Amino acid sequence: MDINIISWNVNGLRAIAHKGLSDYLEGERPTIFCTQETKSHPEQLDATLTEPIIGGVPYKAYYHSCAIRKGYSGVGVWTALEPQRVSTSIGVERFDQEGRVLELDFDEFVLFNVYFPNGENAEKGRLQYKLDFYDALFAHCAALQRAGRKIVVCGDYNTAHTADDLARPKENENTSGFMPIEREKLDHLVRTGWRDSFREYTQGSGHYSWWSYRQGARTRNVGWRIDYHFVNENLLPNLLHASIQQEIMGSDHCPVKLVMHI
After folding, report:
1. Which residues lie across from 3 on neighbouring strands?
2. Dihedral of CA 232/210/177/201: which sign?
3. Percent above pLDDT 70 for the chain
C-alpha cells in the first residue's frame, strides 16, 4: 500500500480553509494530512474541519491544541487510515501543554506530527525551551527505535539544517533557526539513526518551505527549508519519494510530501 503523508504549517487552520484548502486536498487526496500552527481548538472548527471528507472518503480528525494560550500553536492530523493509538503527550507537561505533538500508531509505522518551538525570544528562555523540546521529543522516540519500530517525525522543525537549507546562510548564523546550537540538534538526529527524507532524493540549494511575508521574499525565493519528514533508518527501504510543493499558496509555509510503501 502506498501512503502519501503531507505536512503543512498552515498558519491558522480556519484562515487557510478559506484559501483553497479543500481544492488542494481534492487534488492531492493524501492518505494522511498533518497541519501545524492550527491556532484553534476543535470547538472553534466547523464540520468540514472536524469531520473532513476528501474525494468522497471520510477522514478521522485529531487535534492537539494549546492549553495555556488561545490562538497559539496547535497541531492536527486527518487520516484515512485508522490508527491503533493516538497520543498528545511526550510525558513532559511544559511541552505537552502547548499543543505541539500528535503521535499516531498505525501498527506498521508510528507517525509524529510536530510543531517545534521557535527560539527567537532567547531573553524569555524560548531558545532553551526549544533545545529542551528537541531532546525530550527524541528521547520519547528512542524507546520506539529500540523496539525496532518504523517512525516518521514530520512537521515544522523551525531549524534550517545546513547552508543549503536557506537562501542567506552567512547573514543568519546568529539568527534563531540557523544558530549552530540549533543545527547541532539535527546533526545529532543524523548521528543517532535518523534521515532527512527530502535529502534522500534532492540535493543542493533553492528548495525552501518557508518565506517571510516581507520584501517579496517568496517571489524572489529568499526562503528557508524548515519543514521536514525525518524518518528512522528502519523506514528507509519503504520510501518512494519526498518533495516540496513550493507552488502551493495560502500560508507563509508550503506543504511538504512523503510517499512510502508499507
Report:
1. 260
2. positive
3. 99
Take residue 149 and report the three cell numbers written for it: 519500530
Which residues, 6+ apart, have CB-to-CB distance to 25 below 8 Å? 33, 52, 54
- A 10 A CB-CB count for 81 gives 17
Residue pointed to by grid coordinates 531532546: 135
**Average pLDDT, whole number, for the chain?**
97
Helix 126-146 to helix 180-191 angle (10° resolution) is 0
Has residue 123 got a pLDDT over 80? no
CA angle in degrees (0–180, nearest 5) for 100-81-51: 70
Q: Judge whether 107 counts as a catalytic residue.
A: no
Global pTM value: 0.97
CATH assignment at residue 91: 3.60.10.10
Question: For the chain, how many structural domains are there in total?
Answer: 1
Q: CA angle, corner 33, sides to 26 and 222, nearest 5?
A: 90
Residue 244 is predicted with a pLDDT of 98
Active-site residue, from 107, 132, 135, 156: 156
Could you list the residue range(s) of the whole structural domain that residue 13 is in? 2-261
